[in-house]
Amino acid sequence: MSDTRFYSTRTAAEMLGVSLRTVQLWVENGRLPAWKTDGGHRRIPVEAVDRLVQDQRNSASVEAAHAFRVLLVEDDEHLMQIYRMALETLSPPVEILEADDGYEGLLQIGKFRPELVILDLLMPGMDGFRLCRAVYAEPESASTEIAVVTSLDKQAIADRGGLPDRIRVFPKPIPMSVLLSLVTTLRDAGQRAT
């Protein structure tokens, strides 16, 4: 064991291009082996991190033109961080885009063509209702999947003009297991279709 070199969780996160919390979750669920120092700090074998980096490179080269893109449109910075951290745990990884209002979300959709948009309905400026209508009005983005996470109930949504039937609506707060299941289901269905 004295020949083995180790990384801290922070170094591993930097090398893997993920957040520190993601590395901690990977250690907790067994994806990355680690041990704790007497001070309680995790140490990860260099070989395990190098192997995961190589796996990421291999899967990136095998994937199609780009990774499954998920756009998060949420004005609450704390929720945005929670969504991002949850999505960063997926393997193979997804590409995460972010916007904090409907206008920025629309720009990101036009520029990057995400396969899935997860958005809040109540935002300053352009709200989620207007964003959904604008997305589905454009033929180029009509195939974009939209999932709404909102505190509004069905009646409140109907009172504001409603949403197209194909939009999935989830109550806020959405359990992260539901969010991850939605993303993996859509990603896997897209990979089978290509």
CATH H-tier superfamily of the largest domain = Response regulator
Number of strands: 8
Helix content: 40-55%
**CATH topology-level name of the largest domain:** Rossmann fold
Unreliable spans are: none
Task: Supply the CATH architecture of the largest domain.
Answer: 3-Layer(aba) Sandwich
Biggest sheet overview: 5 strands, parallel
Count of distinct structural domains? 2
CATH level-1 class of the largest domain: Alpha Beta
Order of helices and strands: EHHEEHEHEHEHEHEH
Strand portion: 15-25%
Q: What is the residue-averaged pLDDT?
A: 86
Shape: elongated
Strand order of the largest sheet: 5-4-6-7-8
Short description:
With 194 residues, this protein is of the alpha/beta class. The chain contains 8 helices and 8 strands.
Structural features, described:
The chain is of the alpha/beta class and about 190 residues long. It has 2 domains: about 55 residues, Multidrug-efflux Transporter Regulator, Chain: A, Domain 2, CATH 1.10.1660.10; about 120 residues, 3-Layer(aba) Sandwich (Rossmann fold), CATH 3.40.50.2300. About 45% of the residues lie in helices and about 15% in strands. It has 8 helices and 8 strands. The strands form 2 sheets. Strands 5-4-6-7-8 form a 5-stranded parallel β-sheet, with helices on both faces. Strands 1-3-2 form a 3-stranded antiparallel β-sheet. β4, α4 and β5 form a beta-alpha-beta unit. The longest helix is centred in the last third of the chain and has 18 residues. It is elongated and about 60 Å long. The model has no long low-confidence stretch (mean pLDDT about 85).
